Amino acid sequence: MFALGAYSSDSSTAFAVMLVGSLITGLGSGAAVVIMHRLKAFWFLYRELALAFSVHILMGRLGSAVCFVLLGSIVRQIGLRSCLWLGFVVILFSAGSLVALAFIDQREATLLSSSPTLGSGKAGVVQRIKQLDGMFWCFVATIFFFYGTTNSFIANGPNFIATQYGFSEAAASIITGIVYDIALLAPLSGWLTDRYGNRQHWLIGTSILLFIGLLLLYLAPTAPPGIFILLIGMGYTCYAPTIWSSIPLIVPPDAVGLAMGLGKFFHFIGAGSLIAGAGGILNMQTATSAVPWDSFLIYLICIAATCCLVCMVVIYLNRTGGRLLTPSQKERDQGNVLSEYTPLRVDFGGAGQRPSKSGDELTVSAARPRDDLS
């Protein structure tokens, strides 16, 4: 739709066609992210769950960065229309990858009855929402506040740095991009989360990093901003794999997909509404007054502080609700015969043998100790 809109000579028609394309893109990409989160929760619940989420997040951010760099560097040589068609070709490769993903998952569909992340599918949406407890809604609140804060800063960061520190627009964009550049450490964060557990402490730690980074930007306006933005980037990088890989651990098995969808919904709602609030503050500038950057930072600091408080509630609920976030991956896997299950490998600890495809036999096998599975 974007590529076709570029051929219209009427700007109103082109805008309408591209707007429809944008809406379709939003529906498709949002649904695809939720489905892939659901599949990762199923495939890797008893494997490296946070590591799987962190690698996915890293590849997504690297893909966005590469597309921005490549298309931005060749648009003058080949033109906007050619760039849009090139983007269409890239999307075709992505669609092909999703087809392969669906094939791999479907190939092991007969094993779904043994998955602890799959429910009966008989409950309606309202019933499943009622199954979600207070800890999940605290998770949703942290998603709302954390992503809203970071996205508000990223959206206005280049202008803030250029205005307050005297950098050029290009240099200010590079400094703000540290938040994304440090995403290269996301797999390390995911691995540490799986190895040592205590996800509730990771959540509050990332929120504190965000809060401290914003607070120091406000309190130390003469210090180099890159150091403080590095703290924000570290929090942003570690938060994503921790929060998304924790949701399958705290919700009922048949509500994982719904929970992921609600999380992404509040992610986007938080980003949109809090960015709008930040824009309202910055629009308070008048002809005789400067841009109220101090008010902007105070606004973000208050939201980050609220996120920290909600994370403290998560720690309390985890302590009183069975410590679901505390065990490491190894501790959760002890004695679980499904710990070796992914659609790519289903040997249940045996020497290259696969379990029976019969649903009845699989249920019986899954109930037996690991030593009996060969």
Account of the protein in words:
The chain has helices at residues 2-5, 11-43, 49-78, 80-107, 125-131, 134-165, 169-176, 178-181, 186-196, 199-219, 225-250, 256-282, 293-320, 329-333, 359-366. It is mainly alpha-helical and 374 residues long. Helix 3 (49-78) packs antiparallel against helix 4 (80-107) and helix 6 (134-165) runs antiparallel to helix 11 (225-250). The longest helix is centred in the first third of the chain and has 33 residues, at 11-43. The model is unreliable at 113-119 and 346-374 (pLDDT under 50).
Compact overview of the structure:
With 374 residues, the chain is an all-alpha fold. It has 15 helices and no strands.
What is the gyration radius calculated from CA atoms?
23 Å
Major sheet characteristics? none
Let me know the number of strands: 0
Helical segment count: 15
Helix percentage range: over 70%
**Beta-strand content:** under 5%
Order of helices and strands: HHHHHHHHHHHHHHH
Mean of all residue-level pLDDT scores: 77
Which term fits the overall shape? globular
Instruction: Supply the helix-strand structural class.
Output: mainly alpha
Ranges where pLDDT stays below 50 over 5 or more residues in a row are 113-119, 346-374
N- to C-terminal separation? 53 Å
Features:
374 residues, globular
Annotate the secondary structure layout:
Layout: H1 2-5, H2 11-43, H3 49-78, H4 80-107, H5 125-131, H6 134-165, H7 169-176, H8 178-181, H9 186-196, H10 199-219, H11 225-250, H12 256-282, H13 293-320, H14 329-333, H15 359-366
Helix pairs in contact: 2-12, 3-4, 3-9, 3-11, 6-7, 6-11, 6-12, 6-13, 9-11, 10-11, 10-13
